[in-house]
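cron nightly-structures :: item 1 of 1
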Amino acid sequence: MSDTPERYGSLSRWFHWGMAILIVWQFMKIGDLIDEGEHWVGRTLVPWHISIGLLIFILGILRVFWAIKQYPHRPQLSGPLAPLARIGHFLLYLVMLLLPVLGIFYMIGKGYGLKVFGLQLVEKSETGIAWMASVGSLHAPVAVLFLLLVIGHICAAFYHHFILRDDTLKRMTR
């Protein structure tokens, strides 16, 4: 279950791939831009966007604590691009935790309330909260940044696997 210098443990891999699936699901929100969301993706996946976002936030917090606990044992980055990889990983974690907060701010700030997995956590409001709506409006541009970071992360994994031919990708898949 724990990480070793040679590979990530089962819990780290579960966090990584489980959250990757949820994050790809979240990116399906872009389906709202196509035909005003009137298609299978818009009717089946997109309505779960807020609930999945909160789930990602909770899992992200747990993942950060697990990563900190495992840090001395996990595979260490080396080579000339290691500082760039560390910055990239830090930004991925930061944005992964920031996006749900911005989404919640947007929903509450606009007066929509907050309903998660069928539970109304915050009631709708006629007035909303202007400062929360303003801060929450950063949700969409930060989501674009997150998409770019994820694409960069995937490209880096493929670069390691197919160009450098090292075990970086294998440490997260076996």
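cron nightly-structures :: done
The mean pLDDT is 92.
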